[in-house]
Amino acid sequence: MYQHSVLLGLLIVHGALAADGDSREGKNLHMVVDFMTELMNLQGKAVDNRTAMGMINLSETDKLKKEVHHYLNGRFYQLITEIPADISIAVTNIYDTIAKKNAFDYTILVGFVLGAALDTAAEFIIEERSIWDISGNIDGYFLYGFLWFYAFGFAGPYFLGLENPVQDCSAVDFVQAITENNLSLEQMNTMTPSELMIQMAKIRFDVDQGLFCVLSKVSRFSEAAIVSRKIDEMYDICNVVQQIGSIPAGKDEVGPELTAEEIANLFKSIANVDKELDELWRNFESQVREAYDYTFARQLNDNYFKAIIGVPNLLGMIFGVLFLVESTSLDDLPPISDIPEVIFEDYKELLQGQASNSFLVGDILAIIAIQCWGYSYFAPWLLTFIEPDPGCGVNEFNDIIREYREFSNLTTLFGSSEDILAGNVVFSKETYPAYTGYRLRRFIKELKVALHCLVYRTEKSSYNLAFSIDTWLDLALYRIDLTQSLIQSAG
Q1: Of 426, 427, 490, which Cα lies nearest the Cα of 22?
Q2: What is the value of pTM for the model shown?
Q3: 460-488 and 433-450 helices cross at what angle (nearest 10)?
């Protein structure tokens, strides 16, 4: 008898969801038990009002479904048109970034090779060797081997295994995957859940394969993360639309009959989840600041580390040049009056394969060679300083939070459990469970993209931030399920 009375009370509350009224202040569990006891006394009235109030509720539910479906339909086709442009932007940015890095690496390669070549030429000219005597120049062989093996050994990482900047995918691959699989919301509405799951798996495979060059670089490029987010949102919309469309018009999802004890446990679960959600939400900003500060300090420390290594290499180059300049005597230069004759003699010797250092050409080449070697030693350190500012932080966090500020308190968003049960909460599109779940997932994806420079790092503070965001989403979605159970129990 008691359970039957509770069920009738829930039916009354569910039927009154469309009525106007302000949300009451939250009640504790004891007040809820008292409220449920009062419902037992309303059994007769519940039977009289059940049909009329249920019709109002179903009518409002159908309106909400249509409103949600209309919005999601528009958003779906907006994504379909936006994603190709985002893919093009991502591919261009990936190409430019990798090509720029490769170009820099090639300068280091050239520095090593040019340094070895100039040192080889400098030794040949300074010693005034002849190309006809080179076979007997054993000490020269050793020196040349020393120079060239070291040159290619040091230069190896800067030309072997470099990432190809050309990306073998484009927006055409996305359009082709969508077209070949005939992806449309109209098609999704006619599918069963199992058919939708199979179809979405095929589409995901084709899209992931076609856009591998972009989607595989989500952690490195924020532009790729934007593409991934929008594609995931597109999939999510398909699932939500199918979920809504699977409920016939004029009907709503009805959950199992709940006992008073089960309702009390449901209230308790919602209260506990809301408490955890509130705590996680309040800690978000401090975790963003912590991740930002740690990342800033880490990148600044990396710059210090590079300077500690790069500066000695730069100084080594400078002192090497000064040493050669100091050890080179200008007295070895021919008098001005003899220059034409010396040039003529050097030219004749050159034609015979004999080098001459009359004008200190070998010494000049040696000085240039040291600068080439020095550049390739210090450039990987001193020319790769990074901006300590990660590029995102509290400002980007707050921008997203302002857009989704209703999620700061789900109790305020949905109303208290007691008010939902009492029928004092008027639901809207924003609080329709399926749509709210979609918004929650979209919110977290946008938040992660906005904080891309932090959440994809490997430091502990960044990991904690990403873990907290994911945990909040899991709890928020669970809160949606609990709320839906509360609504359905009165169906």
Answers
A1: 426
A2: 0.80
A3: 170
